Structure formats: C-alpha cells, structure tokens
Amino acid sequence: MSKLLFLVATVLASFAIMAQDDFAFLDATDSNSFSFFSKDKTDEVDLSTFQLVGGLVFVDAFMDGKKAKFILDTGSPGLIINQKPQDYSEQFIASGLTGNTSIGETTISEFKILNITKSNYQAYQMDLGHIENEILHKFNGLVGQDVFNNSILVLDYPNKKWGVSSELSLDESWYSISFELVEHFVVIEVIIDDKINRIVIDTGAEINLLDKKTYHSLNRNAILSSSELSIQGASLENVGSPCAVLDKIGIGTKSFSDQTFSIIDFSYINEGIENPFDGLLGYPFFEDKKVAIDFKRQLLHIRNK
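Above: the chain's sequence. Below: its structure in token form.
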C-alpha cells in the first residue's frame, strides 16, 4: 500500500473556533484585474473573490454540474472530496502530520474551477466532518496542487482575491525564488538561525509549523518567546504543541521578523522522503502578502501589501 502524503487543511489551531455566520456562495462576477501582473497589459488577469474562514481560503467550483465550495489547499494532492468512502482504497492511505487515515477513490465526471476544467478526474474521498465541526462551516472538499499544475496560482490575501494565469510580468515591487516540487508539495529554502531549512508552502494551513528536531537545534537567541497550543490533523487527533516566536526567517534576499511557529514532530510526513521537510509556512506568513505560485516554472513570487 502506498502513502498519499498530504498536509491538508487539517492543520488547524484547535482553539481557533469561529462564530457561525451565513455562508453564501461568492458571486463569480465579483472580480477585478491584476493589471500589473499581466505580460500583455491588454490581457489582464481576472481575480475572483474568496472567503477567508480563520486562515482557510474558501473558493467556488462546479462538480458534476453542481456548485460547490472547496478549501484551497496546496498541501493536498489534487481533489479530495469531503465524503465518507463506501469502500476504502487498497492502494493508498493518507499520511499527515498527526498520523495515517484511510481514504477512498472516485472519479468526477467534470470539475470546473475558474477557467480550469477537468474531465473524468480522479479524486480521493475522505470524511472531513471533524474540520467542519472545528471551523463551523460546511464545504465539499479540498482542491490542491494537481488541479493547478499547468498554471500560475495568484493569491491576493489582503484583498481576498485569487485567480490563475499562464503568464505574468512582475514589477520591481515583487521578488521571486525558486522552489522544488516534492510529490505535490511546494518546498522552498528558508534561513533560520543561519541554517538552510526545507519548508513547505501550504495555503491550507492556519498556522506555521516547525519540526521539533529543527526547533531544538536552534540557538536560544533565535527564539523570542514560547507557549503551548493544540492542533488537529487529518487523523482527527488533537496534538499538544509548543509554540515559539522566532526572531527572524530569511527567504531569498528578504528577512521576516517575529514569525510564530507551532512545534510538531514531522516523522509521519517525512517517512520515505529523501530530503526531509523542516517545517511549513501557512496563513500567518501569507496574510499580509500577494503571492503567485508558478507550478510550471517552479517559481514563487511574493509582494508585501
């Protein structure tokens, strides 16, 4: 049996319970253009609105002709349907940060999101009801990297806009770094305490994470403060986790101060990976930025608001 590695939107701070509110579908016509992105100014990138629930990005799609709501999660492999499987896969198990869980497999006749259409598309089934209970919102599943693997995924967090493009032209206010695709994970090099670390970029995580081995190797002056919280993973377990504010991290030529990380054991996710992951950057890193993830060229573009 093969492991289907993923860091699904299940990386939740268990204390972060949001109040229930009306959760209507977003109007697909509510879009604007990122004119400074476009390679040709006459060919602007249209951005649609997303809804932010805690640190999770909720987007609209159509699945087999019906409107559906998904969490945008680059830590997930393609499409995961929020559905209890009738039959569990004999080929795959899902391996996340807090353990393994069984999944099912299914085929979606047609899946549409933005200008992307997938026909007879293989998807995975997984009961994500525990996440719905945590965030007090219903959703149809998770949409991940494989859906966007021929596109540039654009996210404007401050304005809650998103879109896809095939070409971008960036001005000097942006900076770019290369990344590595490890299976479906976007992995960048991040400098922490003068050491290079392999960090996953994950739009489906409400918190930043650091492997406990990496954390314990840090010099004390790299840590500003520490505390404790609980996080929930795909296996439904709540796991106690130390939490630390790091003095700074470096990405490319840029430095970011006062970054908060939860400390957790990455053993499950690192099993079988030749070059293990040292951590993860999620919503706390992205919340004040515009980012573009170019999956074809393996480039991450970042701009502060």
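The longest strand covers residues 238-251.
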